[in-house]
Give the backbone structure.
Amino acid sequence: MKFLKSALSFTKLEFKALKFYPSSFVLSVIQSFVNMGIWLFVSLFLKQYAKNALSGYNGDFVSYMVIGVIFFQNAGSILTLPFQSLSTAFWDKRLEIYNSSGSGIWAFLTGKFIWTFVYNLIIQLGILIFAIFVIGIKVNSSISIVSVIVFYLLFILTCFGIGLIGASNFFYLEVKQGREPITWLIDVLARIFSGVYYPITVIPISIRFISYFIPHTYALQGIRLIMMNGYTLSNPNILRYTCIMMIFCVVTVFLGIILLNRALIKAQRGNGVGMVV
Amino acid sequence: MAVENIIEINNIVKNYRIRKGLFKFENFKALDGVSLSIRRGEIFGLLGTNGAGKTTLIKVMAGLLQADCGTGTILGFDIYNDHKKIRANVSLVAPTADVGTDNNLTVRQNLEFWAVVYNLQKEKREKRINDVLNFLDLKEYENFWPISISAGMRQKLAIARSLLVQNPILFLDEPTVKLDAKGAQSIREFIRKINKEFNTTIILTTHYIFEAEELCERVAIMDKGKIISCDFVDNLRNNLQKYDSFTIECDNLSTEIIEKIKFNKNVLECTYENRALHITTDKLENILNFTVSFLRKENIDIHSMETNEYTLEDIFIKITTEGEIK
Amino acid sequence: MSNYAVEAFNISKKYKGLNLDKKESGIGLWIKNISRLTSNKAEGVLALNDMNFNIQKGEIFGIYGENGAGKTTLIKILSGLLYTDTGSLSINDSTNIKEIKNSISYVSTNGWMGLEWQLTTKENLIMYGNLFGLSGKQLENECDAVLKSLDMYSNRDKYISQLSAGMRQKLTIARGILINRPILYLDEPSVSLDINSAISLREYIKHYSLSKSKSIIITSHVPDDLAICNRLMFLFKGRMVALGTKDELKIPFNNDKVLNIKCLRFEERHVAMLNGISGVKNVLNYSNEDKKNYEHIKIRIDDDKQLINKIVDLFISKNITMLSIKLSEISLQEIYEYYIGGVANGKN
Amino acid sequence: MEKIKSEWDSLIMFSKREFIIWSSYRMNAWMWVLDVFFNTTIFFLLSLVTKGSTLNFYPYGSNYVTFIVLGLCVYYISFTNLGDPFGRVSRIYWGGTMDLYLLSPLSYFTPMMGVMFRSVIDDYPRVILSLLFGGVFFGATYNIMNIPLSLILLVLILISTFGIGMISASSFYLFNFKQNTEPVRFIFQDVIIALTAGYYYPLTVLPYPLQVLGSFIPHTYALDALRRLLIPGGDLYAKVLPLQKIINISPISLDIIVLIVMSVLTLPLGWWMYVRGIERARREGTLTRWQ
């Protein structure tokens, strides 16, 4: 309970920052819209040539692309979150202060996570509604909202878990700025192999196996099937995806917590979590 | 050499705009009518409490900040029109010495970098860097990374940087903050040395008043954006106490002896309380010699003796708490 | 329950690879240099070496040393932010790192000090209180009380960017006091405070320790900060060179006193005459760098009242005008130098 | 003359320093190479979506990979020249060195340009890399004949994007955008250019209002000309851009003229605004962050 309270104080902190610069909220909304727009136009450009490849999704490349990009964006910001937060706090010389409380760093990360989750949820929900009602993305009329939420939550938690694994690298890393290799690699692989921008069936068969090791593949495919084809959790394919996502979720989150904890202890054995100089 | 005012500013006013809300601003008076003249070749101290406007004043004098109103010339250049020339002719060492020291370059590489930035002639660069390194005893550290030398060394490096070009004015903003006693002492020695050898005018701000007392001939004491007094340290002292006085601690003075001391016409006042003989006089040296030898002649033990001279610290506290001295 | 707030046995700490004295081959990078410390190839650098000491409950304990002597490292270890390599440490009768963190309050005044720019002074305190598991109305009241006691109440609604460096520093100290732990660490508390604030801060700390019987540990390189301490530790290059009350530390000086003389017309040749007086240990320092041409002489002498008379007589006979003669205690820096001199001679 | 010489020396010295720093991030350089490679891979795979249909991106030939690779080239150039100056000015500001640079005889611009060198060595090779990867791995083909003219176009886009970059950099001091995203760069780079430059699709896909908006940025013209010239099967005479339809000269020459006009307009404007920005900061005392 106390832990949650201190985590929420970090969430509140982010909220206060937003009050200071409300423009940053507007900017990130626009940014997300633009990003969606770019891919929307790419799919508009290519849609007439892509009917064959998208037969599994009623040949609707535009809906396929937009739904994928929206959820991928959301996941991407969660993926980089833990490392980014640690890095900023480190350079601002705050990390040591947080660490002087028993579970300060965890409260800090949790608070940040809660904030980013809510913040992104609002933005992406807005975009999704915009995409459906203005652009005219076709969503199946019998869509099962519960299934979407289940997939979405599993997806986000998995990304957070991977993010934690990446963040555990922080104290070993040579350059404590910019991107961190593990999350960077996952992000790039997901872009190429998880079928954000195109169905994985177009990937040459010899390298397609990589797709099956990336959680994004299952999450995005599941969400699309539910939204575009109207499948529910009772569908065997969806059920299989749910199970796989659950396994991914549990494994990454636990691994993330364990690894980051170990990294923290190791850092305190060595030179501490703050700057030496 | 005739006394020449290298810095001459009058009635400088500077307001900062402080953000209160999204579109609300509030003015904050950082400098409120400051006038100051500084002579060539002196070490001038700027003292004041936190937030008194010292740094702002230094920035104005260095041409980094444009005053709202008031007039002034630095090195004969007008502060409004010739600010470019002013900036090219003054040096400044900021309180955070690490600013401008690139941690990716060695000590020497850092100086080489700044030598080019300061537009030193190519042929002279090498020699000048060596000179500066030798002068500040940094020669043996020239190939070290800034991060591996002590904080005092890094401060010296910052000073070295400002010495590359022999500008006639050097601003030092809290040069010894965060240094230990030894490091601070050596910085102080170098400040004196720079002033003597290059005849550089040095303007110094510091929180350690004893430092100013040790180094500066003249000081200005600032409070809330105003200079509340600016004079030679001695004059400040004389303003606070009209007559000199001293106290001698000694045992068993008979009234007879006290009367004899009082008899001297230069002794204005003489009291003996709690084993302390307190004398006020207008001729300090004579009376000191007279009293001491007189007491010793009478075979009286002297435990301690003290001229009641205000230290700069006393003056500072008195002035900042009591306000302007008339 | 023991009487000790801190018990340390043989604690040592090695940093990895901070030893960059040798010019490295190739091009290094600052960030790299910090982080190279974490690689296994890195050389260990002893930051603290084999320290044994106890700090009593309710004591104000001072740690004095030059820059880089290991003060900050020691305080970080004592507050559970760093682990020791060897030795054992018990804070408030506990060796568990979590319990240690719950019984201390660590105030570091370096850098931006972890203040949040988007919050006001008071909100910063509340946020920090939340982080340490305090909340509610009680927290607010305590915030007000702490701000008042540090003379910061009028700034409670200002944002951090509007505070001067000194005020920010006071705020970090307020933060440390707020969470009300039995042990308070202050790392360089008076850096960037002006004289008046520094004096009142010292008074406050003393009062705080006495009234609430807190243990307070202060590191500093400013002797004045340590004047309020019951006991002092001298640190030099990661070694504890001395520990004790100020009087205990002065024992090697045999109650010697320092006589400070300010005078006119003193010349170099007079030094020999001073040394000739029995009881005069040595002339420590003689300088005429004063702007008014006063000479300043420091003499170490036996604790003998008559000596002053002898010196005064000598000066009168030489027609030297004395402006002041004052006995003083030996300064902290001098004591420190004596001890580190001992270490340097003894060990090298 | 003397003055120019000394500024040049300082510029070299800055670049040397940046190079020293850059070369110690060797890991980063590799990440960039991989980044370029993966970026082209994504679009190569995307082009596979169209398998089974006959492609014709009139008037830009029929090779989608070449199409994308050229888009990426202009993207990288714009990323540095337009996106970087602001970041550099803010780096100088937050590092606290602006005061020190101003206390030297340097011109206002030299420090900013000097510090930019790191991005230059970071990003310009990416232009060549993307062309190379496209050609070697993913089957991009180029019209070798038209390379000289394309180089001129590249220089023009370099200059004009840098002009916009300067305008964006000056807003740091001139409009006091310090804490957050900077609007000039944001509106240009992240909104207008991202949407309408057409890195990944031709301008003609866009709704007409966006096409008109796209006519105000140099990228549109540079990409139009480059793609016509370099993609095999590109049509040099068909008019597709709104402006091309209005003004009746050959599309390529129109593109070049527009680029020259934009360069001449933006660069001096950016220059002037930057000086005004510094002057303003000097008045307000916001040159550096002290304390």
